[in-house]
Amino acid sequence: MKIILNGACGRMGQVFAKLFREKCPDGTMIPVDAKGEVGEIYTALADYEGPADCIVDFSHHSSTDALTDYAIARRLPLVVATTGQTPEEAAKLAAAAKFVPVLQASNFSLGIVVLISLARQAARAFPEADIEIVEAHHNRKQDVPSGTALSLAKAVQGERPGSRLLIGRHENGKREPAEIGIHSLRMGNVVGVHEIHICTDTQTLTLRHEAHDRALFAEGALTAAKWITGMGPGLYDMQRVLDAILH
Ligand SMILES: NC(=O)c1ccc[n+]([C@@H]2O[C@H](COP(=O)([O-])OP(=O)(O)OC[C@H]3O[C@@H](n4cnc5c(N)ncnc54)[C@H](O)[C@@H]3O)[C@@H](O)[C@H]2O)c1
Questions:
Q1: Cβ(34) to ligand 1 under 6 A?
Q2: Same domain (yes/no): 61, 133
Q3: N or C: which end of the chain has fewer CB within 10 A?
Q4: Which helix (H) or strand (E) holds 155?
Q5: Which ranges in 6-128 belong to alpha helices (H)?
Q6: Single pTM value for the model
Q7: CA of 43 to the centre of ligand 1 (A)
Q8: Are residues 44 and 133 in the same domain?
Q9: Ligand 1 close to Cβ of residue 64 (< 6 A)
Q10: Per residue in 85-141, pLDDT tens?
Q11: Which residues on neighbouring strands pair with residue 53, listed in sequence order?
């Protein structure tokens, strides 16, 4: 397998490259990074014209134009792990998906995909339950709540018409049944914990995912890269990859 890795010098790019060497010893990785400072690295996608099966992107959302133009011109599948796209950049990815397969996810952890799927199921099974989400991350994280906690909450909300997300609980007063609470802890070096509590008057079901190492995102992206090479044009998410694993 030949993978073009955009953002190869970054933290995640280096983790992905290490995993790829371990898991695909016969594969070839073509590293691209605007910095281009480690070994033989292409500083722009357009500089590489050789063969490839797919592009994995762990760079910066500002590269979206170059990324989509290159993928379309070369008819290459695209696995987009980079986050933070503007609405215009997100539209560019959606437009590219008319020509090539594009898989985008803000969290490539397969465990989180399973967690979201189970949370939906639990919300359906216990329509009267109070649902509260708790996430914990290291003390350097800027965004609150985590994007993954929001994805989890929105998935549950999809099963609960009329419900509303409550980020943090500040005021006195009892809990409203329509609330889905989201609570954030910031401490130490925690890589990422997401919990969802589904609580009725008689029982509590707690679903919990804990990330130990950023390598889990690279594992998911590599699984996605293998999956997408067999797909036609379209915009895909990690749920599709999970469906393929389960069937
Ligand atoms: N989807 C997921 O599961 C997941 C997990 C972790 C990180 N991420 C995302 O992946 C991205 C990278 O994260 P990181 O921690 O490795 O960041 P980083 O800053 O360490 O690395 C980004 C790399 O991209 C390079 N780069 C920037 N602009 C570029 C361009 N136009 N063309 C080519 N290379 C360019 C930089 O030189 C840098 O080496 C971020 O958007 C982050 O949010 C996603």
A1: yes
A2: no
A3: C
A4: helix 147-158
A5: 11-23, 64-74, 87-96, 110-125
A6: 0.88
A7: 14
A8: no
A9: no
A10: 899 999 999 999 999 999 999 889 999 999 999 999 999 999 999 999 999 999 998
A11: none
CATH of the domain at 203: 3.30.360.10
Tokens 């803000």 belong to residue = 106
Active site residues: 137, 141
Q: Across the chain, which distance is largest between two alpha carbons, in Å?
A: 63
Per-residue model confidence as pLDDT tens digits over 180-237: 999 999 999 999 999 999 999 999 999 999 999 999 999 999 999 999 998 999 999 9
- Residue from 33, 214, 223, 238 to probe ligand 1 pocket by mutation (most atoms less than 8 Å from CB): 33
In this structure, what CATH number is given to the domain that contains residue 45? 3.40.50.720
Ligand 1 pocket: which of 38, 59, 78, 80 to mutate (most atoms within 8 A of CB): 59
Same domain for 104 and 16: yes
Q: Which domain holds residue 97?
A: 2-108+214-246
> Cβ(16) to ligand 1 under 6 A?
no
Ligand 1 pocket member 192 (CB < 6 A): no
Question: Do 94 and 29 sit in the same domain of this protein?
Answer: yes
Residues with Cβ within 8 Å of 22's Cβ and at least 6 positions away in sequence, in order, are none
- Whether residues 104 and 222 share a domain: the answer is yes
Q: How many CA atoms lie within 13 A of 162 on its CB side?
A: 5
